[in-house]
Design a protein that fits this description.
By secondary structure, this protein is of the alpha+beta class. Strands 16, 17, 18, 19, 20 and 21 form a 6-stranded mixed beta sheet that branches. Strands 27-28-26-25-23-29 form a 6-stranded mixed beta sheet. The chain has a 5-stranded parallel beta sheet with strand order 2-1-3-4-5, with helices on both faces. Helix 21 (597-629) crosses helix 24 (752-761), helix 22 packs across helix 23 and helix 23 (677-693) packs antiparallel against helix 24.
């Protein structure tokens, strides 16, 4: 049976059966339907060689159906034969041809005629189909030829491209590599298998590349990644890998086309920029350049070199390897062994020392076997150098503003990297930043030293003044302000002769030493603010002017005068009892005199009294020394102030002159005080002795004791010599005496009131004097009460005790 089909359309089954019987001998497939709707459905499902169509049918007649068939693109070329029992009316025939019919057959049907007509249309359809198939095959052949030509062109284009190009199937298996692939990788076509690209990717980049490739194969998205491809010499270069899917008309992926573009130079520039930024950040993070240079050496390893060493020139001129870093620990061990076995030469022709000496960088793009042999001193060193696998080297100086500070050495080994001019520029930029960091750290250190010196000048006790060559004051520290009373704002910037009184007469007497030599001090007086100051000056000259240092010796000179007075006073105080003792002793030892018993006893009394006086002087000196050194402790306890005052007044009665009257005026009941009883008695004794001593014309000395809110106050009053107001604060100073020349015949060591003040301070009390200056004085002593203690027992009723005369 042929492949042709004939569509039979008639609303009556018997007519269809008759048509099938007539056409069956032709051997074609017959499709019978009883309505126009069914006929249209069949036309949608398949192709027909011709259609036999009844004219008279219900719902949709033959003419209408024919018009619909001709309107459809799929069926408009199918020939239609009308079959009708109507009379051959010309109008009907014309209507049929107008509707698209190619022929009319009237009933009754002649089988032979129908079969012959149908056979003609079927043969025409078969011929047309054959021509279409031939045309399709011819078109496919032409397309195949065009595709072969295009493929050849594409291959030629791919081979001419500088990028590596490959194609893979839908599963990602490589089916094509261009010529650049084989030239770069060194693979042969036999080695370039389905997964050959994986063998060329750097091991560190392969996991990410595989993961990304699996993802894009699953999603159909564009594959893009940056990874390193191994070249035929074993080195790796960065490439941008990109693969896009090629789809058919239905959108299905047929295959993938990939490219690898060399971006090594761009990536290198980016890495270099990132490295420089990171190195700059490390260098600026701290002012400890030694530590930051170690960090920079570690950053350089892996980024631009396989090992890095930093040498610096110390202030004394020695060359020190400050930092060294290796990416391979084994190479670090070899390096240490090399340096231990073969220390660097004193004057090498190459290396850091030579670069520092010349100030010029060194670049060895490729270290050859001949280079190693020339550098080795013996076979062992040569073998160690070979094990380091150094293949390229460069060393750049650390150039400062005034000198070469050191050098940075970079070596490439196991990575196979070859240094070039661009790498040298990068190393020089790194060295420039490192040198800047070193100098900044040095400037900061100098600034800190200057700041520290400024702080020292601000806090030092000596006055410091800087006078430039024009005589203007450039520095005037706080001590200078304090000593002279001249404010910095009133002095700095002005001529010293104009703002410092007496400068022109005093300064020429100050010897000026040269910087670095010891300065000799000169003491001299200077009138400032209506007072005389004794200042010790020293001066050192330098290129910008002269630095004057001065110290206030006014108080020291005063103390020295007091010491001299003390020596004179103590000498006098000691000579007087010693002379008396010596005279009495000589008299007692004379054998030519027969002394009366009364005279002998009197002389022995003189010896005893003057010995006690000597002991008092010595005790005062010893006690003052103990107070100065802090070796005297106070045994603070609960004391009865009335009892202590009474005992001391009674003790003073034994040595009271005839013209002096001593009176105790105290309350009958006083609260206890917290004090050292012995030391408090000594204080009251000294004050009573002073009151008696400074009453040469006699009079009444009153000892008063009264209770205050937090203290008990002792007051010793006399009507003797007064104390001038300017002297009232100074009389408590050590060695100070109101009558140093003893014009009134009043001696003493000048330690009594000083001892009183120090003893009272040790129990948190206070002592002071009040005097009108002409006659009479009152010394007050306040001692803290013992708050928790019970009131001291008195000798009578509460109230004020009657004054007692002794």
């Amino acid at each position: 049976m042929s492949g042709a089909a004939i569509l039979l359309v008639d609303d009556r089954e018997e007519n269809l059966v008759a048509l099938e019987a007539i056409l069956e001998p032709l051997g074609h497939r017959l499709v019978s339907v009883t309505s126009g709707t069914a006929a249209l459905k069949e036309l949608l499902l398949g192709d027909f060689a011709c259609i036999l169509l009844d004219v008279r049918m219900p719902d949709l007649d033959g003419f209408e159906l024919a018009s619909l068939i001709k309107q459809r693109e799929r069926s408009q070329h199918i020939p239609i034969i009308f079959v009708t029992a109507l009379s051959p009316d010309e109008r009907q025939v014309y209507r049929g041809y107008s509707a698209g019919a190619v022929d009319y057959i009237f009933k009754p049907i002649d089988p032979e005629v129908l079969r012959s007509k149908v056979a003609v249309f079927v043969e025409l359809w078969l011929k047309t189909r054959q021509l279409q198939e031939q045309a399709e095959r011819l078109r496919e052949q032409e397309l195949a030829a065009v595709e072969r030509v295009n493929e050849a062109r594409y291959r030629q284009l791919a081979d001419a491209m500088p990028q590596m190009v490959w194609a893979t199937d839908v599963k990602g298996r490589a089916v094509y590599f261009n010529r650049r692939w084989f030239e770069y990788t060194g693979m042969t076509p036999e080695e370039a298998g389905a997964e050959a690209w994986q063998a060329a990717v750097h091991p560190d980049d392969l996991p990410l590349a595989l993961s990304r490739r699996e993802q894009t194969l699953a999603t159909g998205d564009t594959f893009e990644i940056e990874y390193r491809f191994r070249a035929r010499d074993g080195t790796y270069r960065w490439h941008l890998g990109r693969a896009v899917p090629i789809r058919d008309q239905d959108g299905r992926i047929e295959f993938w086309v990939g490219t690898a573009t060399d971006i090594h130079d761009r990536r290198r520039v980016e890495d270099q920029r990132s490295f420089i930024v990171a190195a700059g950040d490390a260098l600026s993070r701290s002012l400890d350049y030694r530590e930051t240079l170690k960090q920079v050496a570690e950053l350089a390893v892996g980024e631009i070199a396989d090992s890095c060493a930093v040498h610096v020139v110390e202030p004394e001129g020695t060359l020190v390897r400050l930092a060294v870093s290796y990416s391979d620990p084994a190479e670090a061990v070899l390096d240490r062994e090399l340096h231990e076995r073969y220390p660097p030469d004193a004057d090498p022709a190459t290396g850091p020392a030579a670069v520092i000496r010349s100030g010029e960088p060194e670049l060895v793009p490729e270290i050859t076997e001949e280079t190693l042999q020339a550098a080795a001193r013996d076979d062992l060193q040569l073998e160690l150098l070979r094990q380091l696998r150094s293949c390229s080297y460069m060393c750049v100086p650390l150039r400062g503003r005034e000198r070469i500070l050191g050098a940075i050495t970079l070596v490439s080994s196991h990575s196979g990297r070859r240094f070039g001019a661009e790498d040298l520029l990068l190393a020089e930029e790194l060295a420039r930043r490192a040198a800047t960091a070193i100098e900044n750290a040095e400037l900061y250190r100098q600034a800190e030293e200057r700041a520290e010196a400024a702080r020292v000048l601000a806090t030092i006790g000596d006055g410091v003044c800087l006078v430039d060559r024009g005589g203007r004051v450039r520095l005037w520290n706080r001590a200078a302000e304090r000593i002279t009373g001249l404010a910095e704002t009133d002095v700095v910037g002005h001529r010293a002769a104009e703002v410092v009184p007496g400068w022109e007469t005093v300064m020429p007497r100050v010897p000026v030493a040269v910087a670095g030599e010891p300065a000799r001090a000169e003491s001299m007086p200077l009138e400032l603010g209506g007072r005389e100051l004794w200042l010790s000056f020293s001066a050192v000259g330098f290129e910008d002017g002269t630095v004057f240092a001065f110290r206030d010796l006014t108080e020291e000179r005063t103390l020295e005068a007091m010491r001299q007075d003390l020596v004179a006073t103590v000498s006098h105080e000691l000579r007087t009892p010693l002379a008396a003792i010596y005279g009495a002793a000589l008299t007692l030892r004379r054998r030519d005199l027969e002394l009366e018993t009364q005279l002998r006893d009197k002389l022995l009394g003189v010896v005893a009294e003057e010995s006690i006086r000597l002991a008092d002087i010595v005790n005062e000196l010893l006690l003052a020394g103990q107070l100065d050194s802090g070796q005297l402790d106070a045994n603070i306890e609960r004391c009865d102030p009335l009892e202590i005052a009474s005992l001391e007044v009674e003790a003073a009665q034994a040595r009271l002159p005839d013209n002096v009257e001593l009176v105790l005026d105290a309350e009958a009941e006083l609260p206890p005080v917290a004090a050292d009883a012995g030391q408090l008695r000594q204080v009251l004794g000294n004050l009573i002795d002073n009151a008696v001593k400074y009453s040469p014309d006699g009079g009444t000395v009153t000892v008063a004791v009264e209770s205050r809110e937090r203290h008990v106050r002792f007051a010793v009053s006399d009507h003797g010599l007064g104390i001038p107001a300017p002297e009232q604060r100074r009389i408590f100073e050590k060695f100070y005496r109101l009558d140093p020349d003893m014009t009134r015949g009043i001696g003493g060591t000048g330690l009594g009131l000083y001892i009183c003040r120090e003893l009272v301070r040790r129990v948190d009390g206070r002592v002071w004097v009040e005097s009108k200056g002409e006659a009479g004085s009152t010394f007050y002593v306040e001692i803290p009460r013992e708050q928790a203690a019970a009131p001291a027992r008195g000798n009578g009723d509460r109230g004020r005790a009657p004054a007692r005369q002794i």
